Amino acid sequence: MGRLIYSMMTTLDGYVEDEQGDFGWGVPEDEELHRYAEEITRSVRTYLYGRRMYETMVFWETAHDLPDAPPFVVEFAKTWQAADKIVYSRTLETVSSERTRLVREFDPAAVRELKGHDGDLTVDGPELAAAALRAGLVDEVGPIVLPVVVGGGKPFLPPGLRLLLELADERRFAKGAVHLRYRVQA
Questions:
Q1: How many angstroms separate the CA atoms of 52 and 44, rounded?
Q2: CATH of residue 94
Q3: Could you name the domain of life of the organism this protein comes from (predicted)?
């Protein structure tokens, strides 16, 4: 049985993007963190994306072809390409990556069925994650906290959500990031 994991880079004050919609602070020049992200996504069979997150992540469909792409970028691109992707959007007309399908509505029962198979799933993007969290589908919450404060923006977790969590693991990085992995208890 697979796990549904919600993990994103966040600021220390809990935002995935600032008030202007920027998340450039979330793309650190940190090879160690990048290699770790590739390592923890190897078990992912399916990525669940909202439209905006998919439009950001589809970069990985061709990143391995960049002439100056370092090996860790090529490795992550290949890992990303090997997984299935489901994009939930009412406005996106078409997808531009292999192994990707477009779904108009988030259906908790369909996600429960996906979890019943081998391999993990991730839910990526705070709005889609909020729906999955509220539906009780998320098994792990894993913020990757970066050493930056932006003072406002789009929060990693939705307001009003209550969860009981158990710390399962933590990992610190030389440039100041910390990955916290929590199992959802209730």
A1: 20
A2: 3.40.430.10
A3: Bacteria
